[in-house]
Recover the amino acids of this structure.
């Protein structure tokens, strides 16, 4: 059983703060890691992908991967109320065919 | 930007009726998927499809469900005899970019199914 675990939240942060979202996964052969954002009633949209250990930055978003600890995180700097959504962690095996999702962390950014 | 398109956006049906949800995946993607999300719950994998056949399916994807790629562009999910618990948002997705080799999963906007 492939597990992707996330704290369901809600995680509440004030506007302008750093939001830190965490995800652990059980399968050591996982190859690719993704963060999706899902607004209520909408489909998941890709925020970040990360494939190797370390940090990857894209604007206000930074993904961090530690394969030894089987841990991936997403930092959102200068959080905005528009960042309020559920953030889904996804892990990919076998390159193309298998994507496993966590249950998501709900983020509330308070003005 | 290429996108996955789904129709209908919302379908209401009576219990026991057949429903077909349609999807047009991104044209140069190799893998196609259906996911389900019951209101307030997690995104659940139903089935993946590659090279005109099912490559993997979950326990949810029982005999009531089937998928088909009837032509070169459409990818359909059929629910033969709907039950109340089939009410959910159904997301089509595709991955496996033939030109770039990228394996990012791209979702459609979803089809909301309401079974009465």
């Amino acid at each position: 059983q492939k597990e992707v675990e996330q704290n369901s939240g809600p995680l509440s942060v004030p506007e302008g703060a750093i939001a830190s979202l965490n995800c652990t996964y059980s399968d050591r052969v996982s190859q690719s890691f993704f963060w999706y954002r899902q607004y209520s009633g909408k489909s998941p949209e890709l925020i970040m992908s990360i494939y190797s250990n370390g940090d990857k930055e894209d604007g206000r978003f930074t993904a961090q991967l530690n394969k030894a600890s089987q841990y991936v995180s997403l930092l959102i700097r200068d959080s905005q109320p528009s960042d309020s959504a559920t953030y889904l962690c996804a892990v990919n095996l076998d390159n193309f065919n298998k994507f496993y999702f966590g249950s998501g962390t709900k983020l509330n950014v308070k003005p | 930007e290429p996108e996955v398109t789904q129709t209908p956006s919302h379908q209401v049906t009576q219990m026991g009726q057949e429903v077909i949800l349609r999807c047009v995946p991104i044209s140069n993607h190799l893998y196609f998927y259906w996911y389900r999300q019951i209101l307030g719950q997690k995104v659940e994998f139903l089935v993946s499809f590659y090279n005109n056949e099912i490559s993997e399916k979950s326990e949810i994807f029982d005999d009531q469900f089937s998928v088909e790629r009837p032509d070169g562009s459409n990818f359909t999910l059929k629910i033969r005899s709907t039950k109340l618990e089939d009410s959910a948002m159904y997301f089509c997705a595709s991955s496996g970019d033939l030109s770039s080799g990228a394996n990012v999963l791209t979702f459609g906007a979803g089809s909301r199914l309401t079974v009465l």
Q: What stands out?
A: The interface with chain A takes residues 30-31, 33, 41-43, 45, 48, 50, 55-56, 89, 91, 95-96, 103-110 of chain B (CB under 8 Å). DSSP finds no helices and eleven strands in chain B. Chain B has a mean pLDDT of 93. Residues 102 and 116 of chain B are 40 Å apart (CA to CA).
